[in-house]
Amino acid sequence: MPPRTGAERYFADQLRDPEYRRAYKTAKARIQQTDALVRALDERRVARGMSKAELARAAGVQPEAVRRLFTMDAPNPTASTLLALADALDLELVTRPKKTPPARTKTPRRRVAARA
Fold first, then answer.
1. Which residues lie below 8 Å from residue 52, measured CB to CB, with a gap of 6+?
2. Chain centre distance of CA 80
3. What's the total number of domains in the chain?
4. Distance (Å, rounded) from C-alpha 57 to C-alpha 53?
5. 103 part of a folded domain
6. What is the SS3 assignment for 60?
7. Is 100 among the domain residues?
8. What is the mean pLDDT of residues 88-102?
9. pTM for the complete prediction?
């Protein structure tokens, strides 16, 4: 479907720029990772039968911060908050290498000499 509004047309134009498109994809991936982490914490909270207020107390975090974290469309929590919540839920936040496809190597092209 083609862009209908001025904002949609502007965004579509911006995405034609390779640098902008790369930055957009990077930001989108980070937002998705943050959302997945917050959802996992909230699922664990629900599975353990804890209210948001109980989790906040157990983590030593302001109740408003926990409430906002689990209800906002695009939360942006600090690492300290995530670690405190994970600890209160008996979880570890673990880092691991990204799953990346193997690097592609370019095969040099052979030049074909022009015949006279």
1. 45, 63, 66, 67, 70
2. 17
3. 1
4. 6
5. no
6. coil
7. no
8. 86
9. 0.72
Specify if 105 maps to a domain.
Answer: no
pLDDT band at 112 (very low <50, low <70, confident <90, very high): low
Given a contact cutoff of 8 angstroms between Cβ atoms, the answer to whether 89 and 48 are in contact is: yes
* 27 inside domain: yes
The tokens of 52 are what? Answer: 């948001």
Residue with tokens 């989108």: 28
**Residue 96 clears pLDDT 90, i.e. is over it:** no
What domain range is 22 assigned to?
6-88
CATH of the domain at 81: 1.10.260
Contact 78, 31 (CB under 8 A): no
For residues 67-92, average pLDDT: 92
pLDDT at position 80 is: 94
